[in-house]
Amino acid sequence: MSEHVETFKATAIGKGWPTTVAISGTEFTLQLDEPVEDGGTNSGANPMQYFAASLVGCQNEQAQVVADELSVTLSKIEIDLAIDLDLAGFMGMAQNSDGSYKRVNLNATVFGKITNEQVQELGKKVDARCPILALLRSSGCKIESAWSKA
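The chain above was modelled as a monomer; its predicted structure follows.
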């Protein structure tokens, strides 16, 4: 098995709420927060919302790569995602957060010049290659993924 390792770095600065995260080597800064009812100031998405956004973003980017490999033309992909997360560890009600991701339900609708068979091949390859989905899968999270042609 060959490796192609790339290191991603970020620096977080938190002085209460919110947390500012600078993505090293880029011009990007994120602001993470929690809703007011959870003690935050609601000035940004929370870390789990960013994680969900990272997953669907990774799926879309991987789909573009795989579509090129399959020589198919995509005009758009719509990805709906739901992640069930047990917050007992986060809330201090359990000793840790191991196994806290319970279920991912991902539904992708593919638009473009592509057959149903190609959509299924695309989805299978994307799901197998997305490192964020692989992280969830290896944690024991149940993955439910459906890819369909618009």
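The chain has a mean pLDDT of 95.
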